[in-house]
Amino acid sequence: MKWTDIQDIAISLTEAHPDVDPQYVRFTDLHQWVMALDGFDDSPDRAGEKVLEAIQMAWIDEV
């Protein structure tokens, strides 16, 4: 997965953190959690605030 795979990342986060309300996740934590996902392989520097916000919104939609 890359940072642009927003929907796949959101699904993986839902599975990896089922008890977390994504609305209250800080971007610093979100960044670390995405980097730790199985199958994620992208540069940590490629994720800006807009990318993290898009991931968070997609994750909220999954829950």
Automatic annotation (TrEMBL):
One GO location term (cellular component): cytosol
Source organism superkingdom: Bacteria
Gene3D superfamilies referenced in this protein's UniProt entry, alphabetically: IscX-like
Transmembrane segments: none
Gene Ontology terms: biological process: iron-sulfur cluster assembly
Gene Ontology MF, one: ferrous iron binding
Pfam families, alphabetized: Fe-S_assembly
Protein name (database record): Fe-S assembly protein IscX
Species whose genome carries this gene: Pandoraea horticolens
